[in-house]
Amino acid sequence: MRIGRYRILNRVAVGGMAEIFRAETSSGKIIAIKKILPQHTANDKFIKMFFDEAKIMISLRHPNIVQLYDFGRVGDDYFLALEWIEGKALSSIIYQQKRQRIPFPVGVACYTMLEILCGLEYAHSRKDSYNRNLDIVHRDISPPNVLISVDGDVKIADFGIAKAASNVSFTNPGVLKGKYSYMSPEQASGYELDQRSDIYSCGTLFYELLGSVRLFLGDTDVDTLNNVRRKRVPRLIKQFPYIPRQLEKIIMRALQRSLSKRYQDAASMANDLERVYDLYYSSDDREALKGFFQFLYPRAQIYRDKEKKKSVIEYWGTQVLHMSVQRQSRKHISSREVAIMSIVLLVACLGLYFFYDDVVTVLRHILSKLPAFAGG
Asked: Which residues belong to the active site?
């Protein structure tokens, strides 16, 4: 089977928007082909937006963005030819991590988020040939659209196609099903979007990595959208006290519903995160992500050397055990408890101050009896 000049090797996945194939070029290079599902190609508005966005996205060249090589139409089929990533979607890694009931390493989560922010900052700041802002907004920063390679690379997928998808979602509800919980409040309300919408989605994703919970997911899509618009965000460190407060502050700022209080761009969030990362987790980098990947998928041939593979799995086994113990054993003292203890201590000090003579008399009386007890 062929799509244009590309030979299809096998089908990899099917989603609400497209089916994905592993393919090769005439020179033997492995690529991914994303073929738009037929039910969407009948929408003229979608097709126009698909081509308009693809023309912009093909110019994006960044190590944290999946490269678009080609796009076009063959017969009734519309397709994208993309960089092939040997690895897993972040959604699969999160699923595996939750299934095994192990925490996502904080340093690895920080590194992953820094790489995502780096890719977003590049895309958000792109200009055209007249030096005008292209105003690129991804619109769907979510675990399925973040790919992790076996070498520890972090790549954002589906730039451009998300905008087209958002415009057919109301006539084809299945397109964005499952993605609502990563939307920003303004996106959930149908307002005009800018790059700060992607920042909010990053905050939601980062919260999920550290807290192992879908922050805004409700029982129905309507519940989920209402949660995105109104739900109060629970404090992370109340449940996970080993997470630095500076890190929680970054997440809470990214999740500000007020656009003016939220990070204004990806670079600002990345700068704050990098300071915390350098302070606590600078050793948890690309190699650490690669090692955690191998631990989650022990049968995967990420490390070809058997001894290296074994030592990496053993290392992450001890790390995960340590993190699990931290989660279960460390009790966080809330601000309310601190206030109560402070009041009790203050009352005790005041009592000692005002009734000092009486307290001393009682203590002397007790001490005078001690020799009698000892002699008896």
From this structure: 140
